[in-house]
Design brief:
The protein is α+β, with helices and mostly antiparallel strands. The protein is built from 3 helices and 2 strands, in the order αααββ. The protein is globular, with a radius of gyration of 12 Å.
Length: 69
């Protein structure tokens, strides 16, 4: 079992996401995206997290962030 404070991670990466996208995503939006990504990694336990993000982008739009290729 992994424990992570998604809210703190969202606060940490929010400025980077804003700089990359030119838009300021809400903390709630980022928490949802991080949680979804975390759930995906949990299913793929053997996958290297860095490789999982390779060739992907985070696109916050309309209050929802999409992590995909």
């Amino acid at each position: 079992m992994k424990l992570m404070n998604f809210h703190s991670v969202a606060e940490l990466i929010q400025p980077n996401i804003q700089q990359l996208t030119g838009r300021k995503p809400t903390i709630k939006t980022l928490v949802v995206a991080i949680k979804g990504f975390s759930d995906t990694l949990e299913e793929l336990k053997s996958l290297d997290p860095v490789r999982a993000l390779e060739n992907n982008r985070i696109s916050p739009s309309n209050g929802i962030a999409d992590v995909g290729s």
